[in-house]
Amino acid sequence: MHSARIQQFVRRLRPSIAADHIYISSKHTGRLFICEEEELNKTIESYQRIDDKYALFEKMFLQIFLEKEFEMAAVFGLDNLDETQLRNDQRFRTHVGKFQRFINGIFDMLSKGVKSSDEIVEILRIVGRQHGNVRAMSFTAEKWPIFKNVLLELLCKDLNEKTCATWNKLISFIISEIKDSYLEHVRHARSSSCPQITTYRLFSKSRRLKNRKHSESKLTKTDTLND
């Protein structure tokens, strides 16, 4: 569905959504996150109940770096480290801490309700652009589901099916917005860094047209002389 049509759909639904649902809508992609307010509150509570959030995200990145996506570890220069060395490496610890603060911030805003919707989306877009600046690595399509699945497996370990479904919708929305912003940033960076290619193509096309007209003109003159 086109993003403009989705926005119209949200506006029509707004009276019914506002009563007992929470929603986030992205003006950039038209994507929606809609869930029952009660279920979102349970999801927020499940996150707040995690005693050691750093340990959870540390485990997530250990799985990604050591088992799922070795290329990501190489970007940080951590590909030759074992689990113990990773835990003690300041670069790894800093990355885990940044991710924890990011998720904490999202949940702080979610707890404020619909008023934070636009702010949440803009933060996700900023994170996407930041990933676009990591030139040593391309975040290809298969990398996003790996990250999502590892995170959900840890978050939903002891939760009921309905709360896990809300987690899944929320993380999917977060990743989709980050991914879209990342791809937009990469496309813009590529087009900005190669303006000479476009200029060359236009020049080449113009020159080919001139050569073709010149050849056609010579052929016309030759035919006239032969007549």
What would you note in describing this structure?
It holds the Pfam family Globin. The chain is mainly alpha-helical. It starts with a helix and ends with a helix. Helices cover 76% and strands 4% of the residues.
CATH architecture: Orthogonal Bundle
* CATH first level: Mainly Alpha
Spatial order of the strands in the main sheet? 1-2
Give unreliable regions as ranges: 9-17, 196-203
Sheet with the most strands? 2 strands, antiparallel
The mean pLDDT is 81
Return Rg in Å.
26 Å
Strand content: under 5%
Number of strands: 2
C-alpha end-to-end distance: 63 Å
Order of helices and strands: HEEHHHHHHHHH
Q: Helical segment tally?
A: 10
Helix content: over 70%
Shape: globular
CATH topology: Globin-like
> How many domains make up the coordinates?
1
Secondary-structure-based class equals: mainly alpha
The CATH superfamily is identified as Globins
Which helices and strands occur, and which strands form pairs?
Elements: H1 3-20, E1 21-25, E2 32-36, H2 37-48, H3 53-68, H4 70-75, H5 83-88, H6 90-110, H7 117-132, H8 143-155, H9 161-193, H10 195-226
Antiparallel strand pairs: 1-2
Helix pairs in contact: 2-9, 3-6, 3-8, 7-9, 8-9
